[in-house]
Amino acid sequence: MSGACVTVSDMKKIADWGGVMKNRVLLFIVAMFAAFLIPPAEAAPLVDNGDGTVSDYGTGLTWQQAEAGTKAWESALSYCNNLTLANASDWRLPNVKELESIIDDTRYNPAIDTSYFPGAVPSTYWSSSTYLGSTSTAWFVRFSDGSYRGITVKSSPYNVRCVRTTCTYTLSSETASFDTSGGAGTVNLGAFFQSCPWETFNNLDWVTITAGSSGTGDGTVQFTVSPNDGDESRAGSIAIAGRNFIIAQAGVSPSLLTIATTALASGAVAKTYSRPLSATGGRQPYTWEVISGNLPTGLFLNTATGVISGIPITPGSSDFSVQVTDAAGGIANRTFSIAVLGITTSSLPQGITGQQYSYTFAASGGTPPYTWSTSSALPPGLNLNSATGELSGTPPAGRSSTQFTVRATDAGSGTATAIFSLQLYDELVVATSSLPDGTVGSSYSQTLTATGGDTFSTQRSWSLVSGTLPPGLSLTVATGVISGTPTDTGSFPFTAQVKDTYPSPDLTATTPLSITVNAACSNARISRIPEVGYDSIASAYGAALDGDTIQSIAADFTGDLTFDRDISVTLKGGYDCSYSRNESLTRLMGTLSLTTGTLTIENIQIE
Prior knowledge:
Layout: H1 8-18, H2 24-37, E1 46-48, E2 53-56, E3 61-64, E4 70-71, H3 73-81, H4 96-100, E5 124-130, E6 137-142, E7 149-153, E8 158-159, E9 163-165, E10 169-171, E11 175-178, E12 183-191, E13 197-201, E14 207-211, E15 214-216, E16 219-225, E17 234-240, E18 243-249, E19 258-259, E20 267-268, E21 273-276, E22 279-280, E23 287-293, E24 299-301, E25 307-310, E26 316-325, E27 331-343, E28 351-352, E29 357-360, E30 363-364, E31 371-374, E32 382-384, E33 390-393, E34 400-409, E35 415-425, E36 429-430, E37 438-439, E38 444-447, E39 450-451, E40 460-467, E41 473-475, E42 481-484, E43 490-500, E44 507-518, E45 524-526, E46 529-534, H5 537-543, E47 549-553, E48 556-557, E49 561-563, E50 568-575, E51 586-588, E52 592-594, E53 598-602, E54 604-606
Parallel strand pairs: 11-18, 20-27, 28-35, 37-44, 47-50, 48-51, 49-52, 50-53, 51-54
Antiparallel strand pairs: 1-2, 2-3, 3-9, 4-8, 5-6, 6-7, 10-12, 12-16, 13-15, 13-17, 14-16, 17-18, 19-22, 21-25, 23-26, 24-25, 26-27, 27-30, 29-33, 31-34, 32-33, 34-35, 36-39, 38-42, 40-43, 41-42, 43-44, 45-46, 45-47
Helix pairs in contact: 1-2
């Protein structure tokens, strides 16, 4: 770029480096305008450089001497842009004014000096100038007689001759600096050829060109810089004859970066929270971060906006430090605290109907003291103390389950709510008050029962809290059944407990019980000698004397029974194993025969 005239390629480089061109359309229009400013040269000497190029010192252009053949317009652009000739690679397709500058009106068919351009054809040649009325067409110049130029579609195959600029320029300085107040500036331009044209391009809205917007040969460019009220410095460039002239201006020193937010509002569990942090001074944009401590669980800090938002999950107070960093690397810190109001009570213990109930709700976070209330009906017989949060009263009989909502309001009008369920049960009581005796060797089974408690609970269990069962018996935990076959005689006291484990805490009830185990029964005996037992009625009859009473247990006896002795006896049945009471019948399942003597029967059933 150094020392070259303004070209399309140069303008693009200038715009990219200085940031002054806003879009390619504007760049193209400016470049075309510059190209058309170059007037056709009058007669000026051409020079054959002996390296395949011809220089025109009247226009400062160097031309490709040989023909490049015919090409479509896009191919012609590409060919010239990629051409390396005479140790130069800045070749391009000439604009229409440049192309007309080598027409020789004294010559015909072709209208060009063929002593410098041998092999030139009397035909049309492409220019780089697009026709602004239709971008699918471009300008061409006819070299048969040089009489006119025209436009045609870019797909047409026309002749090509490439060009490069040989004008060189110098600037008296490359940069200028200004303080915030701005001011005026001057830069002098020196041209190697006084015929070389130049222009000044400026797209900085804070720089104004006051003189030297264009010229030919040496010149002077004057400009002014507007005051800078912003806190950021600025810099840009203007293009003078294709050379970048950099203008820099200081900005107002930024004020001290400070976090303006001094405190954050309280939040509540399960309620949406959103509070912005703000800062002043420094240079935006800001970046935010938590540098120590932690936000309440469920809240997050947006690093770009400084907004703390989310839904708090747990109650309590969280302390943390926030740091903001500005675009210039400045930092500021501040410590904050967010109190999250929440009811910390998670569940209620069950209550017993007919008994005093008392439980106090608890909360944390927010600003105490708290005021308690409910938005739904409480369990029957209970009331909520608004100042203390105590739920108390005596619930009436009858199992029930009540769900209700409790609200805690802090001194700052923050609120938190929670839903609770209270289970009320009738008092759990062991209904079994005594157990029957057992007999050694005889199967035993009794079920313990209870009333009240959680009657729908599938987690009721039974146990012994003291004492032991008779050897041979056991307690089924899930059903309360005491069963088995006793092996030892005696009296066995114990305390039974029933527990409902579904509520919290457990419901329990106990009762003292006892089981007496008697010796094994004899089927029959003679009341006169009760200590002697017999395995059958027939055996006892064989040992009886006249006038004896034979006793038998309440059982079924099979087989035939014959009374054939000349004595008088009484057969009395239905006794229990201890022969202490007559509770039922003795059944004889065979034939009863009396062949001699006398027989009296009581509580005997013959089948």
